Every structure is written in structure tokens, then in C-alpha cells.
From TrEMBL, chains A, B, C:
Protein name: Copper-containing nitrite reductase
Pfam family, one: Cu-oxidase_3
Domain Plastocyanin-like: from-to ranges: 27-135
Organism expressing this protein natively: Caldiarchaeum subterraneum
Cited Gene3D superfamilies: Cupredoxins - blue copper proteins (2.60.40.420)
Taxonomy, superkingdom: Archaea
Length: 290, 290, 290
């Protein structure tokens, strides 16, 4: 191991944080009457949100309680991972330790080795891990002198009817956080002036997302979620599979603001639409989890 | 309303500029013998170009003289829009006022609410609005000390044969500014050394464009058209649906320079090709409108 | 010609470097038992790597020894090219001279004029030309005070079964450097701490690549390969057709690190996967050619 390369854990490091991912299989409802025979982490697709802070030593335990071989690829780790968690047989477990040296918004997903890496993602076995940068790193937070009012951790992901459609890039459903049109059915509540930070991750596995709000211009965006990669004043961000953005935006007024992947035919109309419902006396949930 | 958030109009503001968009339906010729049963603004698809200056208070009136419900989403506005122009019944009209606080190149499109937002774009009901930044904001303009010789407002857009192809992302035609191979049939004339500024907008609704010139390297590009987001020396820009770029380039010599979306199979061969025809004694049109 | 525009050659310039491209047609093996009836430069698809240095005057001779009309579009050239090498009949040749004023990673491809420009790329007739910037231009090279240990020139490209699939964007094979799963069969060897520089070019002609390493975070990336366009700490880069990146990364440890286009269904599973095989006593090849 190369100790001076960022990402590697120090020898015999004691983890600052530890997380347990339990791999298995289950039927998951992604819409009324629509059952997805999914591969899952901790009972859901997407799997649980993991949040750590830049510089922390992170331990991930993966246990396979399912009937198939599983594994893990964790994009926040710049260190050897395949050797430790790349192939976990049913009934077995693996352990990975890394240092979260790169701030950003990352995908993790099942990676049992070989072609399984590619098709297990098709099966819904993925989630988001966020490495929070050192305090006050994002510009709007520095300018306003406060944390966001609402943090929205938003995963865009696709479900296919069969392998042929997966090869051809023809998703049947495209979702935000696990359900078709989820935030149309259950809008995200906000108040005028609320400072929202989106942690937007497109896990794909195929489509290029274009994340936009009707009535909104993203004030600041950060490619990969890294504060060093800022652009400003954008109507959308173009986000390939496993690409991500942190987006800062304040709600300008009352009323509904649609959030949508602006690829209308291949994505939005298949479920990648939601609503930010703004009113002055809204009861606000401060964190929206995948 | 939150007065300190950029984009909201001041109370009782008198508009600096006002625009009228008339929504209806019509048959439009997009190629010899090819009729597109389109939804349109002001008689054409794409609709009229709107240009304002950063900081101006802008009024948009939309009148529906057609037989279907129409509406408006205007990406240059960071303010509540759906409430005012989101759903305009036949015979009705709506009015939106906003402050153009974010410089850039934006899409506007019909947004009658619900699934119509997605499918009306399929029907050709969109256009470009440009918010010009404060004077001398783009680098080549500052360096040369003069305005561009030619401003090319260029919309890339797609037409589908049916809803199934729209879902599957299989466009039948991909065009620059309303006609298949338009600027092959009627080239854009220029002279060597001419300073061209492209306002390139991909309205999609599905494909990711890759805008390139044969014999050209883009000297400076600005994501979203915002002067703050500059990159330099690029053979192409990758532009998702409703993403945009301002591009600065000088014509290096005489002869033809093809402009093209370099996604050759899914886009260029379906019509997204044009010609910059350069000769020293060319008669030049200073603005190319959509 | 406009002498003060970067890219044009000076009058009567003596080339610093000269390259010969021989255009023809041949059957090429892209996998065991898979024959691709290709159009080729210098006997292979992709064609030969061309490397020049920023500021050099470059001469390209193209000879057509095949049975079809060929030609050349060379994206590193900001000068009139179509007139000189745009259409080369069988048995003929052409000559282009330009100054390599824009550092970066570029595509070249056959461009015989008309629709052939689009379909000859389908036929495999393309390659990479790199314009190396002035010394020490990339950040990791400056920081470490040395050249990369391994330069990987990596072209992602697609093969289609027929024109219909080409229009529809449904590739049959997606490859790195000419063979399906090439670097799975013949891994790229490295040692822990090795400083790798990828010159990644997506020639398409259709798909948007997402280039990622399992167990790796790209330390620095440069859009188009231009040192001025840096971003840092990214799990992937989203790369449209003819877009490119220079990527700097150090191998964190021993073991296998997969490189992959993270568009799993449309690209990776069709061949766009490779392995960086790291071990302390590896015998390393310092340059990986397309």
C-alpha cells in the first residue's frame, strides 16, 4: 500500500465511523401494483444513505444474507476494494477500511465480480455515500453563514423490463429515490427563502440525466460534489451514469416548483419528476433521504 | 415572495421589456415534403428569439389562440412561474414578470401542467431566451475590443414519429433551427477572421448533443452561457437536453466549415449538420435567428 | 488565411513533424471469431496515435490506397481542412499543414464529404492525435516533479451490426482500443504509487461515455485535455462523442482496479471494461497505445 496517496487508510487505523450493509434479495414496490424483483442493501432500493466527513477513517462491513453472491464497489474509496469486498458468498461477510479524503457525492453498488458487476446494478443494488467537505466549503453556505434549511439526497435510477432493454438503454421506469413519480405523490415541503442543498446522484445504469427545476435556476453547482469544481447560474446539470452534483438553490417564492430530468421522453415521463411545494407556513422536513 | 433572492421582480415593477407569445397549433414544413403537425409559438417552431439584458425586468404575455390548453416554462426565470403561466385555456392569457438576474442562454417551452409539459415539447413548442450579461463579459469580446461580427442563435431539436419512439429516444429528425439540414441548404456566410458567437441551446427533448466544427476548435466556451463558467480550446461541447453554451470562435480561413452534432448516427445523419461558408467577399448576415 | 488566428500555419512553413496516414479497407478481428469489415488508417482500427507538441507546425499526408473515396477531419487543427484533405479519390493523396496551437486530446477520422463523413466513422476509420502542452502543464506532474510512469492512450469506440442500429444508437460492441474487453484479456500492468496519465477519447460515434475506475477517484481531470480546464476529485467523467479528457491518477495499492464506462448496459457489458493489474514487482509498459 502507498501511504502518501490520498484514500488509503493508515496502518492499523481505528475507524471514525462504521457502517453495516446487509445484502439480500426481495420484491420491492416501486409504484402502485408494480413489483420489482430487486437485489437490495438493508431491505431497500436504493440502499441506505451513508454520510461521513472528509478525512475520517471509514469502515464498511458487508454481510450477505441472500441466496446469491454479492459484493461492493464504493466510489468514495480511492484504495484497493475488490480484494476485500469484491465477492461475498451467501452467508459470508467482508470488511473495507478507507480514508474519505475526497469530498463529494458518490455511488456505491453491488460488485460481485465479472459480469455481475454490471447486471447487479440493473437489479437495484446501489446507494449514495456523501463525503462532507470541511466546514463552510460551499459558497452559499459561506455567504449566508448558515447550514442549508433542507438537504435533499436525490438518487435518479432506472428499472428495465429485461436484459435486452438494458442493453438497448430503454428504461421502463426512471425514478427519484425508489418510487415512480415519488415526490409528485409526496411533495417535498419548503418555505420561500429556504436554502436547499441537493445531493444529486445519477446511478443510471444507462441514461444521462438533466436535472432542472421549473421556476428555478441553480445558483451554484459543484461537479462531483467537490467544492473546488464550482459553476454558477445554470438551468440544468448534465449528469452521466455515476456522475453527481451538489446544487445550492433558494426557493424564490410560494407555489409549486417541479424538479425533473429534462430528458422528457426517455426519463421524465417514466417517473423522474417531483414537486417542491413551497408555502410560508409549511412544515418542513430538514433532510430528505433516498 | 422573497425580495432578496435573485430573479424575483421588485414589487409593482414596471417592465423594461415586454414580449408576447401566441400559442396555437399548425402544420409546419421541416423538410421538402415533410409536414410536422406542431404546437407553436408565434407561428413557428422553434418560436421567436427573446433577448434581454442582465438586470432587466421582463414581462411575458402568453395568449392561447389555439384549440388546446397551453402554458409556459421559461428557464431564464428564477421565480414562481407555474402559478401565472402554467396552464392557459384556449381563449385565455397569462402574464409573468421576472428579473433577468442570471446571464445565459435558456430554453422556454409550453408547460400546460401534468404530462402535457413533457409531450408538448415533443410537439415543437419551444424557443430560446438569451440574457445578455453586462457589457464585455465574454473574454474574446474583451480581448478584441469589439462585438461579434456574427451572432448565431442555434437551437438543436428533435422530431419523433410517435410516442413510442419518444419514450425510446429514437428521433426521426434532428435539426438546427427548424429545418432538416437547414444550413446545408442555406449556408451561414462569413469571412476569414470573422468573430462568431454561437448561442447554442439543445432543447432535446432527449438526445445529448456534441457540437463541433470541422476545421474549428472552439476558442472559449461558457457553460449555460454564463461568463463565469469558461473553458477553453475544445473540439466539442457535450450538451444535454436544455443545457446550453455560448461559444466564441474566429473563422480561420476561406472555405467551408461544417458545424455538426458529432453524435453521427443518432443526430447528425438525421439533419443536425450545417455549413459556415467563408470567403473574403462574402455578404454577411450579422444575426442568424432560430 | 488569417495569420493572427491560432491554428493557421505560417506562410511557407517548414513542418516540425510529418505523419503519413494510409487509407484503405480490411477485415479486422475485434474479438475471437468476430470479424469487422472496417475502413482503416495504416492497417488498424483505431488508426495510429499521433503525438505533437504545442506550437509545432504539423504536416499530415493522407494516401488513399483503398477502393473507396476517403478523406480526413483532424480535430486538432483550427484551420481550413476540407479543401485539402476532405475528399481523396482512390489512388490519390492530400496534404494538410497546421499549427498545433491548442493543447489537448483530439479525434481524427475519415471525412470524404457528404454523408460519408458520418458513416465512415461507423466503419472504424478514426484515431487519436494528442497535442502535448508546454512542459509541466498538468498539476500532478508539477507537484511530483516528474513525468507519468504510465501513459495510457485510450479510445472508446463502438461497432454496429447495421445502419438501422447506428441510427438508433444501439451498439453491438463498445471497446477500448480496438478489441472487446481488450484489457481484461491483456491487463495493463502497474505498481502501487505509479502515476498514470490517461488520454481518454470517446470517438463514439453515438454513446456518451462515463469513465471510472473501481477503487479509484480521478485526482485531476482536464476537459479536452487542456490544462486550463481542470476539475478535481471525480469518480467519473461524462464524455460525449469526440469529447476527451486527460486524467491523472496514482495507483493506491496492489490488486486489480477495473476501468470501465459506467454506462453498464449500453456500453460496459458490450466490451468497455479493462483491468489495471497492480503489483509491486510488475513489469510495466510505459506507454499503452491504441
Amino acid at each position: 500500500m502507498a501511504p502518501d496517496i490520498p484514500g488509503n487508510p493508515p496502518p492499523n487505523a481505528v475507524p471514525d465511523k462504521s457502517f453495516l450493509l446487509i445484502a439480500s434479495e426481495a420484491d420491492v414496490m416501486i409504484d402502485d401494483g408494480v413489483v420489482f424483483k430487486a437485489f437490495i442493501f438493508n431491505g431497500t432500493t436504493p440502499g441506505p444513505l451513508i454520510v461521513v466527513r472528509e478525512g475520517e477513517v471509514v469502515e464498511i462491513i458487508i454481510k450477505n444474507v441472500g441466496g446469491f453472491t454479492h459484493g461492493l464497489s464504493i466510489h468514495a474509496a480511492n484504495t484497493q476494494t475488490s480484494k476485500f469486498v469484491g465477492n461475498i458468498a451467501p452467508g459470508s461477510e467482508g470488511r473495507l477500511v478507507f480514508t474519505a479524503d475526497f469530498p463529494g457525492v458518490y455511488m456505491y453498488h453491488c460488485a460481485p465480480g465479472g459480469h455481475g458487476i454490471l447486471t447487479y446494478t440493473l437489479a437495484g443494488m446501489y446507494g449514495m455515500i456523501v463525503v462532507e467537505p470541511k466546514k463552510d466549503s460551499y459558497l452559499l453556505e459561506r455567504t449566508l453563514g448558515r447550514e442549508p434549511d433542507i438537504k435533499v439526497y436525490l438518487i435518479q435510477h432506472e428499472v428495465y423490463l429485461n436484459g435486452r432493454d438494458f442493453f438497448d438503454g430503454k428504461a421502463a421506469y426512471v425514478m427519484f429515490n425508489g418510487k415512480v413519480f415519488r415526490y409528485v405523490t409526496e411533495p417535498i415541503h419548503a418555505r420561500p427563502c429556504d436554502y436547499i442543498r441537493f445531493y444529486f446522484l445519477n446511478v443510471g445504469p444507462n441514461h444521462v440525466a438533466s436535472f432542472h427545476a421549473v421556476g428555478g435556476i441553480w445558483e451554484y453547482v459543484y461537479q462531483g460534489g467537490n467544492p473546488a469544481n464550482m459553476a454558477m447560474g445554470l438551468q440544468t446539470v448534465t449528469v452521466g451514469p455515476t456522475d453527481s452534483y451538489v446544487i445550492e438553490w433558494r426557493v424564490p417564492d410560494e407555489g409549486n416548483f417541479l424538479i425533473v430530468s429534462h430528458a422528457f421522453g426517455t426519463q421524465a415521463i417514466k417517473g423522474a419528476v417531483g414537486i417542491i411545494a413551497s408555502s410560508s407556513n409549511a412544515s418542513v422536513q430538514n433532510v430528505i433521504y433516498p
